[in-house]
Write a structure and sequence with these properties.
heterotrimer, A alpha+beta, B alpha+beta, C alpha+beta, A: alpha+beta, Aldehyde Oxidoreductase, domain 4, Aldehyde Oxidoreductase, domain 3, 3 domains, six-stranded mixed sheet, 18 helices, C: alpha+beta, Ubiquitin-like (UB roll), DNA polymerase, domain 1, 2 domains, five-stranded mixed sheet, 5 helices, 29% helix, 14% strand, globular
């Protein structure tokens, strides 16, 4: 029966067809506890793998004796580096063209490094076997301070690499113009200098990393279940590394309990599970515990930065930054190939600088590998933290209000598209407007009065501002690749005879609501209600090739792909409609869900009727194939540039130095918002992470390289009691090149919030205690030390 | 997830039965009540008891009763019960203060006062609460019962005088007129152990402090009883200056170690601040000047 | 040892080691993988179930300790095809993203509403402070609980 206008569900605020606050389709299973996460999957004959890890940060491995473990009842196998060598899997490539040990053979290079893999009937038994493995270590001195990693007497960590004579992981990378910057500084009225650290922290998604590998020796098919953010890229790597046929590998991601960049890399546990399954011929499940997650998987940040910023005639004119990046024991940072420091050079910020110069080099240390993760937009979190802290430092020095200095120095609307001093082209923006919206929402003047009154009574209150411009949605083929793979994403749209549709995408959700928002894009473009659009993802057999979800790529890249593919379908529908209405395609006009004859609104056909026609035996337009579907691989023409103005209000107990974030105002401009409810949710979550990073999240080490924050007792994540009731505002400046005008927002809140909070802490303590700098985390002990005039870097 | 090593399990049906099992099995047996100290340690394999004796069915150990000059709390009383007890709120408000900041509401449904005291984590709050209140505990063993004052109960970190075959069954707290008490704590985040905490109890008679109890958590290998400050307060009228002086003594007499929560000087500083604040509130309550 | 534990009103019998944790006992029961785990140190709350109506961390409870008690998991909330108001509230107010902490949050807040049908924002934040959510920033979870408080019992037929 044809769907007619009479029985189409009528769109409403509650159930928009297209953009709007549509409630999520994926909720249905999650609120019932029917999600399908990695540890929920049980396969017949499945065995469990558990990893033995190094207690030492740096040590030679003298011997490994697995005999007692092998003899333990229930243990099927114990794999060491020697076993993997025979398969050519003892080392694996990283995204940064380095190599990483899958299991340590000669040496261990960080505490928690993988040494042996026990496979047993269940996890309890496998863990019983771990202490039965006898490893003899010869401890070596460890390097945990990135600043000391290149000292002449520093122990050499990567003696496995031919020609490596020091701990340099990535040579000096520069952006900007050193000479021009020197000139600008020489002419400046004011210069401030700061050493600013963005400490090591960790994305710590609530679900840890894991994999089930199921190799069928008869067919050669490798089935993998794995929560990972880039399934197609992983499949390509496994094919290369394990010598398996790529088309015989299927990765299914199902439901993922959070990613935040932690589930981008390939981990040794994955390779061991695959190797185990290939050798044993049964499914092998490996799922790490929380301490393994914190101690060995992809951490975030760890940038040791030294910066100067200058001003002339009251405006910011120049910036120079020198960075030592701590990459840990192996370089497994994930960023586009030609960008070893990611997009850090966006550190020029939202300001009309005359010149800037950026230098970044990376070192190895005896710590877990990683660095690019935790909603960082490829190091933009580090960049914005630096520039926004420096702007406030400059404002303090100049005796100018922190908002005022920004307003004077912003890139003006008429200057867009704006080429920055480090080679970025920001395409659009109206910064002052967004900043004013934030100020109005915060009641900025009232806050200043309140602060003054409180100060007179000995109460400490701080107001901190941050304004960010970031670049997301990587990225154009001509500029970027990861491991030689183009950062493009695909979309396949198939409309069935009933008028219902399936759209398959490359993006991989870990909670961002793709099943809803991508259905909304199709709904917006084609008028098919979102409940009739099924979004398929997470299965490499059923989704088009793409580079996955991180760096806020979903909306800018996959979202664009879905819009473009929907328009292709709509165009085809137009041709078919013209045949059905016996007119020419150019005589038709579109209203959501329907092509009609221009000037004769009653004469039209619904998309559902067109779909039915496309599969029927009725004539199609000359030369056109039947069916109603299309395929697209989208190559973004540029990044998108979301921006925002954030204001944090903190209260600090003058005696205990405990910091409470009382209010947080966030005004984001992420262009057109497909589902404002989901956009706001993403912002809330990122702001909470910012509270955590600013106040309590840190991974530190002692001098011997022992990790001091290897559990949730010491890696502290904010609860509902530490997070304020976030206040959100918006401005909408559509992205000029994105088909929907959307920019993406997932990482903006994490980018913009830590500097706002730290600026607020300094603001609270500046006049009363002379504090001009503090490093994160702003724990009570560290804030107190700053109040005593002794701000210390972490670790 | 990390998992415990193999062990045996029995469900105790009486206190005597639990004691008999402890005696029979020996030092590799452990009592388990709330389990929220023991089970995490077992999962991390920092504790590997071979035999667990579950006492959660021993409801006769769960009570908060008013005996006039004494309040008696059964060892199996849960944190949430201590938090919500009207009797404790009116007579010993220090308990509600502490319970609001002990662990989190879900853990408080299971953890017990007996378990907390016997775990003897140097940063655990109820130890300083009971010390400040001059409480005594009742230990029952194969040879009968004995009482031990809190001042003699803790030996060192995670170590108490409870013998292998003994069970802590009750906490007894003296109740005297003119009482006020309070607990102050600073933590890095809700649910965390204290960076430092101070419990204060005062008994005010005719406007002067007749007796005082001040004890600190998390700034020594066991709770620090600041007896020097207690002596200072006796016979004096409450005043800000007095509280400051007591705080100063607290910061001198505590023995903090540097760790992830804070360095030594900050912990000493907190000892002073929190002692002052706890005394201020305790006195205000004794004088009925604060809710 | 053979245990029989009442889960969602049904006796579940299995032979397990004494050391088996309640969270694993539940998750090994067909259809009951809604209770999750996320840490090793009883901090994250992903494993929260109700024991005799009170939220407890099932990763910090031995299965053996649950014998003789009523265990309720997230799967018990929907009755005869009708969602519990707390489930509906989470859906209405977008109080979940990845869904991993959600069962623990649902059980904790269900118990809160049972005891305190009209909680303030502060009371809600305190009640859920034993759980961690990495995705939502908690604001919408608080709003969802308020919605459920105002919509007890469920008056709408399920939408999801």
């Amino acid at each position: 029966m044809a769907v007619t206008e009479q029985n189409l569900p009528s769109p409403s605020q509650e159930r928009p067809i297209g953009f709007g606050r549509l409630k999520r389709k994926e909720d249905a299973r999650f609120i019932r506890g029917k999600g399908n996460y990695l540890d929920d999957i049980r396969l017949p004959g499945m065995v469990h793998g558990v990893m033995l890890r190094s207690p030492y940060a740096h040590a030679k491995i003298v011997s490994i004796d697995t005999s007692k473990a092998l003899a333990h009842p229930g243990v099927a196998a114990v794999i060491t580096a020697k076993d993997l060598e025979t398969l050519g899997l003892a080392w694996m490539p990283t995204i940064s063209y380095d190599t990483q040990a899958v299991l340590a053979g000669d040496k261990v290079r960080f505490q928690g490094q993988e040494v042996a893999f026990v496979i047993a009937t269940d996890e309890y038994v496998a863990r019983d076997a771990l202490p039965l493995i006898d490893v003899e270590y010869e401890p070596l001195p460890a390097i945990v301070n990135a600043r000391k990693a290149l000292d002449p007497d520093a122990p050499l960590i990567r003696d496995d690499k031919e020609g490596q004579t020091d701990n340099l992981a990535s040579p000096l990378w520069e952006a900007g113009d050193e000479e021009a910057t020197d000139r600008v500084f020489a002419e400046a009225d004011v210069v401030v200098k700061r050493d600013i650290i963005y400490p090591r922290c960790h994305p710590a998604p609530l679900e840890t990393c894991g994999m089930i590998a199921d190799f069928n020796p008869k067919t050669g098919q490798l089935d993998i279940y794995n929560g990972n953010q880039a399934p197609h890229a992983h499949r390509t790597v496994y094919a290369h590394v394990a010598g398996l046929a790529e088309h015989m590998i299927r990765i299914r991601c199902n439901d993922i309990g959070g990613g935040f960049g932690n589930k981008v890399p390939i981990y040794p546990g994955y390779v061991c599970a695959i190797a185990g399954s290939i050798v044993a011929g049964v499914p092998v499940k490996w799922i790490e515990d929380r301490s393994e997650n914190l101690m060995s998987t992809g951490f975030a940040r760890d940038y040791v930065m030294s910066a100067e910023m200058c001003a002339k005639d009251g405006r910011i004119t120049g910036l120079r930054v020198d960075v030592i990046a701590d990459h840990g024991a192996f370089d497994s940072t994930a960023q586009p190939t030609k960008f070893p420091a990611g997009f850090f050079h966006i550190v020029c910020g939202s300001y009309d600088l005359q010149a800037s110069h950026v230098k970044v080099k990376a070192v190895y240390t005896n710590k877990a590998p990683g660095g690019v993760a935790y909603r960082c937009s490829f190091r933009i979190t580090e960049a914005v933290y630096l520039v926004e802290r420096m702007v406030n430092a400059l404002a303090l020095e100049m005796g100018v209000d922190q908002v005022e200095l920004r307003m004077r120095s912003f890139i003006a609307p008429e200057q867009f598209p704006y080429e920055t001093t480090t080679g970025w082209t920001y395409d659009s923006g109206n910064y002052a407007t967004t900043m004013k919206v934030a100020m109005d929402m915060a009641g900025y003047e009232d806050l200043l009065s309140e602060q003054a009154e409180k100060r007179a009574k000995g109460e400490l209150m701080g107001i901190g501002v941050s304004f960010f411009t970031e670049g997301v949605g990587a990225g154009p083929r001509k500029h970027m690749d990861i491991l030689g793979l183009a950062m493009n994403d695909g979309a396949d749209l198939r409309v069935h005879p009933s008028g219902k549709a399936v759209v398959s995408i490359s993006a991989q959700t870990q909670g961002q609501g793709h099943e809803t928002t991508f259905a909304q894009i199709v709904a917006e473009e084609l008028g098919i209600p979102p409940e009739n659009v099924e979004v398929r993802h997470g299965d490499t057999d059923k989704s088009p090739y793409g580079l996955g979800t991180y760096g806020s790529r979903s909306t800018p890249v996959s979202g664009a792909a879905v819009a473009v593919v929907s328009r292709k379908v709509r165009d085809k529908a137009r041709q078919i409609a013209a045949t059905m209405l016996e007119t020419r395609p150019e005589d038709l006009a579109w209203e959501k869900g329907r092509w009609y004859v221009k000037g004769d609104r009653e004469k039209g056909v619904l998309i559902e009727e067109i779909a039915e026609r496309a599969y029927s035996g009725e004539p199609m337009p000359t030369g056109m194939e039947g069916g109603l579907d299309a395929q697209v691989i989208y190559d973004p023409p540029n990044l998108t540039y979301p921006y925002g103005a954030y204001i944090a209000v903190v209260d600090i107990d003058p005696e205990t130095a405990y910091v409470r974030v009382r209010r947080f105002i966030a005004v984001d401009d992420c262009g057109v918002r497909i589902n404002p409810m989901i956009v706001e949710g993403q912002i809330h979550g990122g702001l909470a992470e910012g509270v955590g990073i600013a106040l309590m999240e840190v991974i530190t080490f002692d001098e011997e390289g022992n990790c001091l924050n290897g559990s949730f007792m010491d890696y502290l994540i904010p609860t509902a009691l530490e997070c304020p009731d976030f206040e959100l505002g918006e401005t909408v400046t559509p992205c000029p090149h994105h088909p929907l005008g959307a920019k993406g927002v997932g990482e903006s809140p994490n980018v913009g919030s830590p500097p706002a909070i730290v600026n607020a802490v300094i603001d609270a303590l500046h006049k009363t205690h002379g504090v001009t700098h503090i490093d994160m985390p702003c724990s009570p002990a560290r804030v107190w030390a700053a109040m005593q005039g002794r701000p210390e870097p972490p670790q | 997830m990390q998992t415990p090593a193999p062990c045996d399990y029995e469900r105790a049906t009486s206190v005597e039965g639990a004691i008999a099992s402890l005696q029979r099995v020996g030092s590799s047996a452990r009592i388990i009540a709330g389990g929220h100290s023991l089970i995490p340690m077992m999962k991390l394999r920092l504790a590997t008891p071979e035999h667990l004796i579950d006492i959660n069915d021993l409801h006769e150990l769960s009570y908060i009763t008013d005996h006039g000059t004494e309040i008696r709390i059964g060892a199996l009383t849960r944190h949430v019960e201590l938090l919500t007890s009207e009797l404790l709120k009116s007579k010993l408000p220090v308990f509600a203060d502490a319970e609001e900041v002990i662990a989190d509401p879900v853990v408080r449904n299971r953890g017990t006062i007996g378990g907390s005291l016997c775990q003897a984590d140097p940063a655990e709050d109820l130890s300083s609460v009971c010390s400040a209140l001059k409480a005594t505990v009742v230990l029952k063993g194969p040879d009968g019962e004995r009482t031990v004052p809190l001042s003699e109960f803790h030996v060192g970190p995670f170590m108490t005088v409870v013998a292998d075959a003994e069970i802590l069954t009750e906490v007894r707290i003296p109740v005297k007129p003119g009482a006020g008490s309070a607990h102050e704590k600073v933590e890095r985040r809700a649910g965390d152990f204290a960076i430092a905490a101070a419990s204060a109890a005062v008994w005010i008679d005719g406007g002067t402090i007749a007796d005082a109890g001040i004890a600190l958590s998390a700034v020594g290998p066991k709770p620090i009883e600041v007896t020097r400050a207690e002596e200072l307060l006796k016979g004096k009228s409450p005043s800000e200056e007095l509280f400051e002086q007591a705080g100063q003594i607290a910061s001198e007499d505590c023995m903090p170690a540097a760790d992830g929560r804070g360095p030594i000087d900050y912990k000493r500083h907190l000892a002073a601040v929190l002692t002052k604040r706890a005394l201020r509130r305790a006195c205000a309550r004794a004088l009925h000047q604060e809710a | 040892m053979e245990l029989t534990i009442t889960i969602n009103g049904q006796p579940v019998t299995r032979d397990v080691e004494p050391r088996q944790l309640l969270v694993h006992y539940i998750r090994d029961t067909p259809g009951l993988t809604g209770t999750h785990w996320g840490c090793d140190t009883s901090n994250c709350g992903a494993c929260v179930v109700l024991m005799d109506g009170q939220p407890v961390k099932s990763c910090t409870t031995l299965a053996a300790m649950a014998v003789g008690h009523e265990i309720e998991t997230v799967e018990s909330l929907e009755q005869d095809g009708r969602l519990d108001p707390i489930q509906q509230g989470f859906h209405e107010l977008h109080a979940l993203h990845c869904g991993f902490c959600t069962p623990g949050m649902l059980m904790t807040t269900r118990a809160l509403l049972n005891e305190n049908p009209n909680p303030t924002e502060a009371e809600i934040r305190t009640a859920i402070s034993g759980g961690i959510c990495r995705c939502t920033g908690y604001k919408n979870i608080v709003a969802a609980v308020r919605w459920a408080a105002e919509h007890q019992p469920a008056t709408t037929t399920q939408e999801v």
